[in-house]
Amino acid sequence: MHLKSILKYVRLWVHEFDTWFIRFLNKHSLATLRVSLAVIFIWFGGLKLYGQSPATELITKTVYWFNPNIFVPILGIWEVLIGICMLSKSLHRPGLFLLALQMPGTFLPLVLLPEVCFVNFPFDLTLEGQYIIKNLVLIGAGLVVGSRLIPLKKQSRSKSKSDSP
């Protein structure tokens, strides 16, 4: 075989693989993202319910005006509910609503407790600061899940068309 024909074969294989891989991602990535969100929220929420969350001290210092013995378990239930909602397509909308309400609060320590979140403001984060900043990924994942929702108006139209004789 000549080098030219080998390169042509390799290029063809790369294009075939690229097409297959993109189809694979299109088919499986959203479900993987939803399950990943579910695992994270159920796990972290469960830790809060059983008093095992490493974030309890940070939460307690941030929302000091609430009794942590009440607030942390409620937050745990909230997070478990978000996770459960990510597992069922019919519950995505309420789950994303709960997520949207919760996420701004997760960034409060950056403002209220900068000495806990930063070694040197604004870029040198502590472990707690990194834990908070990673929530940007959770927000992005929620946005991706939400971007695949069908608007309620369109849902009701399609249901009424399928219900008619």
End-to-end gap = 64 Å
Mean pLDDT: 93
Number of strands: 2
Strand order of the largest sheet: 1-2
Identify the notable features of this structure and list them briefly.
single chain; 165 residues; 9 helices; extended
Question: Can you walk me through this structure?
Answer:
The protein is mainly α and 165 residues long. The protein has one domain. The chain contains nine helices and two strands, in the order H-H-H-H-H-H-E-E-H-H-H. It has helices at 3-49, 56-62, 68-87, 92-106, 108-112, 114-117, 127-133, 135-147, 152-163, and strands at 118-120, 124-125. A two-stranded antiparallel ribbon has the order 1-2. The longest helix has 47 residues, at 3-49. It is extended, with a radius of gyration of 22 Å.
Please render the helix and strand layout as text.
Elements: H1 3-49, H2 56-62, H3 68-87, H4 92-106, H5 108-112, H6 114-117, E1 118-120, E2 124-125, H7 127-133, H8 135-147, H9 152-163
Antiparallel strand pairs: 1-2
